[in-house]
Amino acid sequence: MEHPSTDIVDILAFVRVVETGAFTRAAERMGISKSLLSRRVARLEEHLGARLLTRSAQGTQPTVVGQSYYERASRILTELDAAREVVAEAVTQVAGPIRLTAPLTFGTMHLAPALADFARDHPRVELDIHFDDSLVDLVAGGFDLALRIGSLADSSLVARRIAPVRAHLLGSPAYLEARGRPSHPRDLARHDLLAYGNNEQWRFRVDGRWDYVRGRPRLRTNNGEMLREAACAGLGLCLLPSFIAAPAIEAGRLEILLPEFPIDEVALHAVMPPGRSTTARVRALVDFLVARFGPEPSWDPCWSAAAGRA
Question: 91 or 172: whose pLDDT is higher?
């Protein structure tokens, strides 16, 4: 006996409510009214003969059966999207929307011009770009792709390494002339330090082991460009990745210090929810970024010349 078909848009409405945790946000994501979305979810529940969602002061949550239905339905919707891309790929077209999030400073300094080139090469791709230094929930935010810097925690996300990200201890010539150049990480105790966020503990490789340097920062900020300009102004020493510091190093506004004591090297990764990496448009963008920034990024030659890659 055949069952009556379920409207796939009703399923999509339910999945978006679970992802966003609210009918209002889900309606905004889908570009429909909240009332229409509510009717679609109610129709799906009636069709299935089960309550899928509960509402509370904390938001909208799936029931136990709703969570099970969501996990399977979301995978099916992702596979349908991938199937559509197979057709597009068959006619050599990279097309459709890509919703991407990336760190603010890297985004404005390096990603923005790269994405402009990618968009020019692929006119049928629609880019939706968000710059945010916080760790964004890719599924809840409806993102196809994130660029993340650092060590990745274990998760169900799919990751691809793009390029190394190297940090360096930096100071301005004027500051170093006035306060002296440190010859060892322990010398930093007598210097003014400029910190990113609450990071008051810096790690250096000393005699084959990791040593921690702690200090009371003169300045804290959550923005790398602010740190760079504060260091250039002679306010103190800072740790910065070379993709932010490169212009100031090349211009002689900052000097690399203690290159013989390595600092943690991390990496730039492309991170995707399961299934997104199979779509032609996301694969094309990730391949483009790997070619653009890796395996050795363009911002590091200034570091190589200045520090000799000690």
Answer: 172
Q: Which domains does the chain have, with CATH numbers?
A: 8-78 (1.10.10.10), 89-164+266-299 (3.40.190.10), 165-265+303-307 (3.40.190.290)
DSSP track, 198-226: T--EEEEEETTEEEEEE---SEEES-HHH
Q: Which residue bears the tokens 């804290």?
A: 220
Please give the Cα distance from 231 to 225 (Å, whole number).
Answer: 10
* Contact of 188 with 182, CB cutoff 8 Å: yes
pTM value is 0.69
Backbone angles phi, psi at 273, to 5 degrees: -65, 155
Q: Distance (Å, rounded) from C-alpha 116 to C-alpha 113?
A: 5
How far are the Cα atoms of 104, 175, 259, 265 from residue 187, in angstroms, in the given order?
32, 15, 14, 22
What are the E-state strand segments in the chain? 53-56, 59-62, 96-102, 125-131, 145-149, 158-171, 193-196, 201-206, 209-214, 219-221, 237-241, 255-257, 265-272
